[in-house]
Amino acid sequence: MTAVTEAPPGLSLVFGVGDLLCALPLREVVETIRPLPVQPLAGTADVLLGVSVIRGLAVPVVDTARLLGAAAERPSRFVTTRTGSGPLAYATGPVRGVLPVEPDADRPPPPMLAASATRIVAAVGVLDARPLLFLSSEWPLEGAARGEWPLTSTSASTSASTSTNTNTNTNTEHDEWPVDDGT
User: What does the pLDDT look like over 68-98, one tens digit per residue?
Assistant: First the structure.
């Protein structure tokens, strides 16, 4: 395993979500791991599976299939990302690898995508004659104040925010988390 602290531009982690292919910029990816136990939280949005303890931190886990409207499936990987508000894990299908693909800045998502999809899908490309959705790890946390759980209802947000602030593990640095390439 190697630590990812700085990724070269133009590389993306490509993974499956149901029949979809998705990519995240490698610079936003912390690691990929086998799914860990997830604790559901009452009052959360449907796309939030709950929280999982990853490297000593309570990390929100997003159901990527539900988020994208794909067929539900049991996740085979968690892809943990960096966001401005802390780590976030996507429950995904198999990881295809790190590939030299990146969104074309001149080609935004098609206007036919639903408004909710354009909040997570930064661009749409093609890989192996299949659509490739370039995701943004900032979507679920967009506009959220630091320390809040943005994918929760108001009442659940207060209790989740309180519990995350009680984490006293200061030895975990997100930029030092290794990337597990699945081998």
Answer: 888 888 999 999 998 888 899 999 999 999 9
In this structure, the strands spanning 95-99 and 2-3 are unpaired
Q: Cα separations (Å) of 103 from 3, 66, 111, 123, 133?
A: 24, 23, 16, 6, 9
Cα separation, 133 vs 15, whole angstroms: 10
Q: What is the DSSP string of 9-63?
A: TT-EEEEEETTEEEEEEGGGEEEEE-----B--TTB-TTEEEEEEETTEEEEEEE
Instruction: Quickly count: other Cβ atoms within 10 Å of residue 4's Cβ.
Output: 20
Q: pTM of whole model > 0.85? A: no
Letter string b/e over residues 121-152, b meaning 16 or more CB atoms within 10 A of that residue's CB: bbbbbeeeeeebbbbbbbbbbeebeeebbbbb
Q: How far is CA 140 from CA 40, 60, 104, in A?
A: 17, 10, 22
